């Protein structure tokens, strides 16, 4: 019985390996330059966040402090981005977080992440297509909405009020572009992103001529005398909803930065990926952070936060300062930016499907590559059609939050994977026999004598990382669900909260005390283990802030995925056959020791 459980555990945690000479080999066409990757990252990140999210957070959650919300979200995204950048240098392959998890944590966790990434990209593409359709419709006074409601109504409660044929058409159009080739899609993306960036810069420059510093310091008396505003309006000042509102806004703004993982998903189509991917990720996050903060500053100084229109923030802001004609300039930038975001949502989806299918964890025919176009044509069509159907019939507001689970889980697993690999011994050091006295567990934990990782120190570190993750989950859960008790100085809850904080610091110190792998990479995450650990804690906190309904939908999706993995993926995994043919490192070590 014990042997069977051990065998099952080994099967579920088997890790994908790449030979050095085949690391850069790919059936996909390597044609994307550093410039292409950076523009792809910026375009997929800088769409709906600028034209929709800024107004919603400023009006409903944070007020003028939306600038700090974006800065906090940017820091959280940079922490995850640095971990992605290291893996892009380590493993320049398609699949992004799925592949990174497979090579470090193991197969089951990689499948969980990949399965959620599929849902994330499908919902993200469908919701972006709906946003693009709505924004276009607003420029023509919602003529299409009236027509579709009259001729294509949907009378089921779970669907939207009407079938959005325009949103479906946008998904199918981009699917055709991606089938033709990623380079051609990148050229169009570059042109539209140039339009978007030009409009955003114009918004900032022109907006700065219409600002009023008073809007950042509105008195409470002035706010309380307002009668022409709907909804909650706060107490004025820079923090009208308190610093809690700023933090809540940061949790929302965090999702404005999720597009940067598109860069990692194109690892097999980038030229010189080990250099280009880390640089592109860092440039993407830097440029987007500056522009998000710039737009937030201008908007909150042009219009009092309680008068900001959350649905059309920029057009209404310029109408407020008597520049209504600017609406059409902004419309051109918005359509370009949201179209690029749609491209950014649909482009990585077939790459993730291709990576998972190539490994045999889902049906292998999905990974077929067109011999002339060198694109994953089946995966592209499959993903595009799925997004088109969802965009056609679903009102996705209740589903959008669900895609964040996949994103946050992916970010957390990539950060944990960096920790795992940074403290793992190299294969050469494992094979090397060492004449040393076996260290006790106490010595390995507190005073490891090895200057390089060994199997013993790596095992200790794995246990510490798991303990830290579990304790961090409990710490965040107490902070979120029992914060009232903490505020009231409830002795039991407060004591448990303080114990969790002490344990978390204790685990961090012990992990930092373990020897690290000194292998040289083009890019390495700085301040390990602190950056990955902080990233995991922030992501865990945001995951626990999601609604119970989101977790129910997540459970249904995961149950479906486990059925596919249990009845197909587990038995058809490429790594399963490779492990049967190839001796394990531990086997080679045993034979070396015995000789």
From TrEMBL:
Keyword Membrane on entry: yes
Domain Cationic amino acid transporter C-terminal positions: 523-573
GO cellular component, one term: plasma membrane
Biological process annotations from GO: L-arginine import across plasma membrane
Membrane topology according to the record: Multi-pass membrane protein
Residues annotated as transmembrane: 34-54, 66-85, 97-118, 159-180, 187-208, 247-267, 279-308, 328-347, 377-396, 403-423, 463-481, 493-512, 527-544, 551-571
UniProt keywords, alphabetically: Membrane, Transmembrane, Transmembrane helix
UniProt cross-references to Pfam families, sorted A to Z: AA_permease_2 (PF13520), AA_permease_C (PF13906)
Molecular functions (GO terms): L-arginine transmembrane transporter activity; L-lysine transmembrane transporter activity; L-ornithine transmembrane transporter activity
Membrane found in the keyword field: yes
Localisation: Membrane
PANTHER family: CATIONIC AMINO ACID TRANSPORTER C-TERMINAL DOMAIN-CONTAINING PROTEIN, INNER MEMBRANE TRANSPORTER YGJI-RELATED
Name by which UniProt lists this protein: Cationic amino acid transporter C-terminal domain-containing protein
Source organism: Adineta ricciae
